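Reagents: none. Just compute today. Winged helix DNA-binding domain-containing protein.
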Amino acid sequence: MSTPTGDVTPTSIAAWRAHSQRLRGERLATPLEAFRHLGAVQSQEYQPSKLTPAMRAEPDGDGLAYAGVAAVDALIEQGQVVRTHVLRPTWHTVPVEDLRMMLTATADRVQQVAATQYRSLGLSREELERGDDALAAATAGGRHLGREEASAALAEAGIADPTGARLIHLLFHAELEARICSGTPKDGKQTYANFDERIPAGALGKDEAVRELAHRFFTSRGPATVKDFTRWATLKVADAKAAVDELGLRELRYDDRVFYHAGERPELPEGGPVVDFVQGFDEMTCSYTDTKDLVLHHSVPRTAFPDRPRFNSAILLDGQVIGNWKAAVKKDRVVIETWRVRGFTAAEIAALRRGADRLRAWFGSPEMELGLDHA
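Predicted 3D structure written out:
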């Protein structure tokens, strides 16, 4: 079903995506509901990644604009979400009930992408499979292993030099093969647990899994293109397109591209500019590889954006990247540095300060020191 596109602009698409992702409109009740809505949260930088579900959930403490850090930590501690490798060759945090589905849909393709790296590290198929068995056995019976313990278990199984990059890729392979996943953190560090003991049982066929993943993606991130989806999930275009066709998603055309979405176009509230401080790998920035031109703010030429941002985390102006930020938590305040690709109007500066203050509260600091810099 097509949607009229006469008033579709980069601004309206960005605002629509922010609404789909629950940065706008009705917040979700808890961070767990935010994880379930998004399906997966990119989280190679674990501490900053907590901000993604928190910002999409209702406040759970005095003075907070969204859920606090402790609520996200509790989900990892309780095993309701796991941080593991899935979708792409990077970390994601995923609700436990969704992990089998996501691996069924994507693991074989991610393993193909990783094959060159396995070979460069001298990891043969036989050695990888032996490593999978060793890690599954070592984590059986509720044992959650730190990286050093996992290395020792691999060495005992006869795996040569299970350290450094070889260890990382042995663990990575076992995660994708559904033999291990993240366990309860120890002293703030990642551990590994037995997959079958931690992840609920259940099986889906490949086509059904891809279809479910497509539903999750376009519901939580639409409007987006098929190529956005395939690159987000490391899928073949044919498989992704078949899933989209079966779902009967709504579509709109903009700039000679077809965008898909679920449900009606939201009514977006009127008002002044809105600024959000998001982590560098927030789903607003990393879900749209094909349509990245709509992620960057429309008011500035793409050539004005540096190849390497000054800071990792991103500043969104009305849902589009306009700059970057970093924060340093001190004893009595949080110091937030900002850099933008252009100057701001008075209304935009006021919105920037409001966004920074929401971040200050999330960090639990009574005061903030806000640095303002731009190109």
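The mean pLDDT is 95.
Action item: order primers for follow-up constructs.
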